[in-house]
Amino acid sequence: MGTRSRLIAVVVLACLLAVGFASAASALALGDIVKVAGIGWLVTRYGDQIDTFITRSLGEHEAAARGATKVVPILSVGRGAHIGAAQVVGNPENVREVKAVFQVEGRIGSFRPRILVPTISDRVTGNPERAKGVGVSAVIEFTI
Question: What pTM was computed for the model?
């Protein structure tokens, strides 16, 4: 399958998924759902290049993470709709297992807590299992 055929397949799949989830995500417009799917796909596809960019940028400021790193999608739960990527860091065995970072947001008075949890699951349903020995070293976020 050529690059163009793959791109068309991804766009069609994203549109079908967006239509299927439209009733469950009535707060988001169809264009927003397609945008989320597209950004999620880009993060998954180009995670290694994004990881290299983050590591190099942090290294230039003497803030490079120590240990293995990997870039995974951020899945948000709570207030607002966001999609993005997070660089996770830890020992290589644990980092390899990470599939996503869940971001839980809330509001307590004038405070807006954001909790970032590296997980070995990439599904929003149920209780995601936290990745042991892994932390978040950088965040790239897009507001939709």
Answer: 0.65
Exposed, middle or buried: residue 58 (CB in 10 Å: 0-12, 13-18, 19+)? Answer: middle
Per-residue pLDDT, averaged over 44-54, amounts to: 84
- Give the pLDDT band (50/70/90) at residue 135: very high
Strands 134-143 and 68-77: unpaired
The backbone region for 11, taken as left when phi is positive above 0, alpha when psi lies in -120 to 50, beta otherwise, is: alpha
Cα–Cα distance for residue pair 126/16, rounded to 1 Å: 23
Could you tell me which residues come within 8 angstroms of residue 122 by beta carbon, excluding any fewer than 6 positions away?
Answer: 72, 73, 75, 99, 100
More confident: 20 or 123: 123
**Which helix (H) or strand (E) segment is 94 a member of?**
helix 92-97
Would you put residue 132 in left (φ > 0), alpha (ψ -120 to 50) or beta?
beta
Distance CA 22, CA 58 (A): 39
